[in-house]
Amino acid sequence: MIKVIALGDVHAEFDRLWQALRAAYAADADGLPTPPVREGRYRVVLLGDLVHPKSLEGYQKLTGLEDYDPKNPEHLRAASLAQASELLKVKRYLEAAAGNAVVILGNHDHAALHHDVLLGNAFGVEHREFDPKYGGRPLPPELAGWIASWPKSYELLGVQFAHAGPTPWLQTYDPFFYQSREAKTWWRQTPEYVRRSGYRFGVYGHTPVDEIVLDRKHGFAIIDALDRGQYLELLLDEDRLEVRPMVFAS
Question: What pLDDT does 122 receive?
Fold first, then answer.
């Protein structure tokens, strides 16, 4: 029996990430894997979008700048350095987890790495901090190489974990991904995608939800609710699949 701790989009809420991992007994007070993770009895899956705060307030918290300006190169540098520092902690955690923790590549991670699209949030804040075209500071080579190695999908005992959805086109962050609404709506309009793709269950993020959506009929969960104090726990073996949303903070 394997326990999987799956966490939705981080968006630079690293305090929340560590709080959730500690609540799940997957990380210790030093930010390192606990024995069940190192031994493979627990698996940790982060569903991507580790970078880019969701709001202006998120950038203010991240940088400590109450007047954070997404067009000020010095403020962009502060945002880039702060996220790079936190990403190094996550990298240390994964390296110590001995293959029992994985990060899925999200579209924001892809954009921070490749600078092929300038993303913004619902509050009109553009994510310029890693893009030198806009005065940002690129990811350090060590982190860039690491992020480039993240998979777009991960499968364990017939359960798929991906950022936006189960199909290849929902894992390809090209212009069509952004032009179409399908990445946000597939789970309502075509929920049969998961079973049609051959998975017994699927776990996805990308679409913010007030609480984790668990569709047992079609076999999937939408879990972009880390900022709501929630993560997903799964108990897996060849014959057993138990899924339960977990609350770690109000």
Answer: 72
